[in-house]
Amino acid sequence: MNGVGSVKRVVSSDWSLNNANEGCWVGILLFALVLDLSISLLCSMFLTQIQNSKLNSVVP
């Protein structure tokens, strides 16, 4: 968990927040990362569905 520690150090050095706010910032960063991954996954699934339907409509 070295990455989370470095993120907390950067946040605390920039804003000098307390422990609760550090945890909140880390949670927000992790949530944004998970949201970004899930959105990209949904978009790729959606695009493959569109391509499959196009292929199906082209093939008689």
Model description:
The chain crosses the membrane at residues 25-47. This is Bm1014. Keywords: Membrane, Transmembrane, Transmembrane helix. The protein has one domain (2-58). 90% of the residues lie in helices and 0% in strands. The chain contains two helices and no strands. The protein has helices at 2-15, 19-58. Helix 1 packs across helix 2 (19-58). It is rod-shaped, with a radius of gyration of 20 Å.
- What's the SSE pattern? HH
Number of domains: 1
Helical segment count: 2
Total strands = 0
Q: What structural class do helix, strand and pairing data support?
A: mainly alpha
| Distance, first to last CA | 54 Å
**Helical percent range?**
over 70%
Question: Roughly what is the average pLDDT, rounded to an integer?
Answer: 76
Low-confidence regions? none
Protein name: Bm1014
Keywords: Membrane, Transmembrane, Transmembrane helix
Transmembrane segments: 25-47
Features:
60 residues; mainly alpha; 0% strand
Compact summary:
With 60 residues, the chain is mostly helical. It has one domain. Helix content is 90%, strand content 0%.
Draw up the topology in text.
Elements: H1 2-15, H2 19-58
Protein name: Bm1014
Organism: Brugia malayi
Keywords: Membrane, Transmembrane, Transmembrane helix
